[in-house]
Amino acid sequence: MTSRRGVVRIAVLAVLLSAGGYGVLRWRARDPVTAALRGDARAVAEVRAPHGVRVRVQVVNTTKTRGLARRATLYLRDRGFDVVEVGSAGPPREETLVLDRTGQPDWARLVAASLGGAAVESRPDSSRYLDVTVLLGSSWRPPAEPFYP
Question: Which pTM value belongs to this model?
Answer without folding.
Answer: 0.70
